[in-house]
Amino acid sequence: MTTANQTTITVAAIVNAPVEKVWQYWTLPEHITQWCQASPDWHAPHAESDLRPGGKFVTTMAAKDGSVSFDFQGTYTEVQAPNVLAYNIVDGRRVHITFESKGDTTEITETFDPEGTNPLEMQRGGWQAILDNFKQYAESL
């Protein structure tokens, strides 16, 4: 999918954890499966990540009742541990994430190209919910 307009969506959170820990929890499959869902009735039963420019990733996102699932996948375009991660989703949309160290906390800013089906606010809400789940997970360990 090529985004005709130049609209992007940004979500952000401040995580009460140092940037190195945040980076590991964001990028390692064993952690991704613990936080990558937008609501309690979904989960991420599988994740793979070849964390390098040109490397592929896939996260299976599924309803816990088994009614539906899909693979969120793409290719990394930029990997600058522990501060920048960028990738292209398989449909061509771009995602750029920064992890800014603030001492014992980390500010995550995630900017992405929206898809053309759902309202922008719905997309922002879903991505923010996943980011909020990440924050809760990273702060609990």
Briefly, what is this?
The protein is α+β, with helices and mostly antiparallel strands and 141 residues long. 26% of the residues lie in helices and 40% in strands. The N and C termini lie far apart (38 Å).
Q: Can you tell me the number of structural domains?
A: 1
Number of helices: 3
Mean pLDDT: 95
Q: Nearest-angstrom radius of gyration? A: 14 Å
Known CATH architecture: 2-Layer Sandwich
Helical fraction equals 25-40%
Q: Would you identify the regions where 5 or more consecutive residues have pLDDT less than 50?
A: none
Order of helices and strands: EHHEEEEEEH
Number of strand segments: 7
Quickly give the structural class: alpha+beta
Largest sheet properties: 7 strands, antiparallel
CATH topology-level name? Alpha-D-Glucose-1,6-Bisphosphate, Chain A, domain 4
Q: Span from first to last CA?
A: 38 Å
Range of strand content: 35-45%
What is the 3D shape? globular
Question: Considering the protein shown, what is the CATH homologous superfamily?
Answer: START domain
Strand order of the largest sheet: 1-7-6-5-4-3-2
The CATH first-level class comes to Alpha Beta
